Amino acid sequence: MKRRYRLVLDAVMMALAALLYRKNVISLAFHEAAGLALGALFVVHLAFNRKWIAAVSANFRATNGRTKALAVIDALLAVSWLASIVTGILISKKVFALDWGGAWIRAHFFTSAVALILTGVHLAMHRHIFASFFRKRWAVPAIVILTLASLYGVTFLNMGTWLSAPFIPARNFDPRDSADGAQEGRRKGRGHPHGEEPFSLVAVIELAGGVLGVVLLANAGEYAAERLILRRRGKNS
Fold first, then answer.
1. How many domains are contained in the chain?
2. What is the DSSP letter of 117?
3. Of 125, 163, 206, 226, which sees the most CB atoms within 10 A?
4. In terms of residue numbers, what domain contains 127?
């Protein structure tokens, strides 16, 4: 039963996180409130896994290489999500209305991109949880559909700009372009203030596909790296 609750919590967290990667997909107020809600759920997630965290922390040197790598990835993931939430609070325009802007905006984009990539790596390192899914007869067509959707959607997330945001001069950095990609570009000039565009189901689908694409690419990268390490160890043994 506890495992079922964990899976439900993880699914809710992933869905909520996905909606955060385009701030106007629902509304800016929702974006800020959802970010805070995700932070609260992240604390619950850590509480569910407190025994594993305590055990690995206490015996880090004695654990195997994969567990150490997982612990490091999880620590970086926690730091990146925390940094994304903190910078989000500092640039808030609705919930806290701090609106610090400037370098904090670029830091928010960068940490959010890193958090999403590390989330994909984290999921890849827990793929045993999803192993039963791949044995089902409808798994292959489902994977094909999800892959095609992700390839379509990833074009709407300008992750290159997100990751390079801290190194772009403030005068050359346009949050409109890096935050909302091609969809935002199509909406420019329609008379809606930036961040207050009307809700669009198409935008939600594009966003879901984009986030899924980044996660799948991170999954593939982690899997390829792990296979390569195991192969090299086999040759050297």
1. 1
2. H
3. 206
4. 2-236
